[in-house]
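Lay summary. Proteins are chains of building blocks that fold into shapes, and those shapes determine what they do. In this project we predict the shape from the chain. Here is one chain we studied, written as its sequence of building blocks.
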Amino acid sequence: MKQKTLKFFTARRKAPKITIIIPIIIYILFYYCTVFTSDSKDSVEIGNSALQISSFTGVFSILSSICLILMVLYYKKLGFIVSLSLVLLQLPRLIMIIAIQYNPIGVSGIFTSVFTILMLVLIQKNQTRAEKDKKQMKLLFEQTATALADTIDTKDTYTHGHSTRVAEYSRKLAELNGKSEQECDEVYYTALLHDVGKIGVPISIINKPGKLTDKEYEIIKQHTAKGAQILGRISKFPYLSLGAYYHHERCDGKGYPKGLNGEEIPEIARIIGVADAYDAMTSIRSYRDPIPQDKVREEIVTGMGTQFDPKYARLMIHMIDIDSEYEMKERAENCEQDSNNALMVTEHRSSSAGGILLDKFMTTIDLAVTVNDKASQDKFSPSMILFDSLDGQVHEKEKEVRYLMYFEYAELGFDGQVSQSGARKIQVNTEKVTNSSINKSSNYRIKAVRINDHALIRVSGKEQTTEFTVALPDSSRYLYIGLTGTNCRFTSISSNKADKECPDDFIPRIAEKISYIDAPSGDLPNVQIDSYRSSASEGVEIRDGMRISFHTRSLPTARLVWHCPYVDIFSSDDGKVGGENYRDLAFTRFDGECWELDPKCDVVFKVFKNDSFEDWDSWKKLNHDGYDAEVTFKVDGNRITLITENGGITVYSTAVVYGASKKIYAAITGDQVAITNLRIG
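And here is the predicted shape, written in a compact code that computers can read:
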């Protein structure tokens, strides 16, 4: 009986119309009866008549409370206005009860209170259950969609995790464009299933090495229609089929299947189109290796407005720029592993595990190293490779070295032996250990940190600790550490980073500091920016007509068009970049790209290539050679416009700042560039 009653109170979606109409009638009758009896209180004789009225009111009070519960539970069927009106009808009676000072609330009030509490409990329980069911359904849907996406990717030898990565990139693009959480979820699930139509494409075509014939290409193009047909059956989520059907359309109308252009293409498909193309370029294919991220970036820049939606292409470029550790890519395996998931190295550097990025956060690597079963102990030699490359992996082949810009600093043996390559200087200190925390002779712990142009690597074993201090050739390149050696077997490899950065003076300097700003300063100190916005000039309060002039020169390691100066617009209590209550509003790059970084700031920009602009190679050369630059500011209320012309590119960038109660500042920053002779006019 109890379970049936509970089901009656909670099953509001299945409730017949009569269960809604009857409570309304009873509730209204009760309202008029209680008002009538309350108004007639003085004319009713004390005694049995009063008791009858009290009982009468109490019964109706109980019925009223039950009806109130039902109406709240069925509010979706009644509508918000009707439900609210019925609830408000109760207010006069409550006011009269409170107003009667010498008459206790009695049985009627007690039952009303009890049933009101019960009503709230049931409502909360119903809502909690609904929320829990909603979460469970969402989880089930996500798991089902992911399983289906994995099945699709498994069919293609060269698309491991493709659908999941595209979904993650697509969600991030939607978030950067200010979409709501629900909209971002819709984008994510649509992207997760965008290639579902490949189920109907023969495996021989999907996995064919090399170029497809025209007939095969027409067959594979059909996966968009097949996907839309499959997902179109899910009528509750119509957006799923839109992504599957239109994600190969192009903004210039040269895509398929419909040849739509511009905003004719559904927005959700335009988002997925950019994310899908990015992942395709940064993943392994049968006919090529992953394309380096900087080249992918240039492809997206080139395709902006033709292949890709300009807005989402710009957001993808921004995601590339802030991806300092190159996490947005397919993870390639670069080591030979046995059945125990161990790295096996036979001949010297025959294989390697890379790469763990070193930075100001101390990295700890724990591992076990043993000699290969087929090798003798005297030929056993574990070591580490210090290097940089676009994909974070060790490369030996000349083509890969050139294509992936591989640069090797040194190879460091666990025993203290050093093979120096690109490092300026390496200092080695070795000491015997008497009370080691290392339990087994095969166990090692590596602690490594990189601060600017120096790195410190300490290798601890049971009997010996070897410390390497490495002076790097610059502060701009990345520094990865990879495991290798001769006749080694690495197992139980794990790594983690500290939560706090090491101080700048943590590593004793063994070589002089590399500086490209040893020149006279102007009104502000010179500044060297070794990597993406790693430092900035002092802030200057923006005023109408203000000019900032300076000399700029790209660092020797600069190789890309965006390795140039940027202008940062911000606010903070102390006028410093990163200062207290810092708000990063917007920044403009001299190559013509502008970004709004705060939701309360809108940026409108125009870029013109003048007759003096030759090409981007000439632009990069100009930055390497160095030139004098100037930025002019115009202020009109909350509108700040900056204008600059360099190398044949004129940039007009207007930042509209909303709700700014503090001063707005400008600072010069950039990526791999030296700024000198800063003057304010």
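What the prediction tells us: The mean pLDDT is 79.
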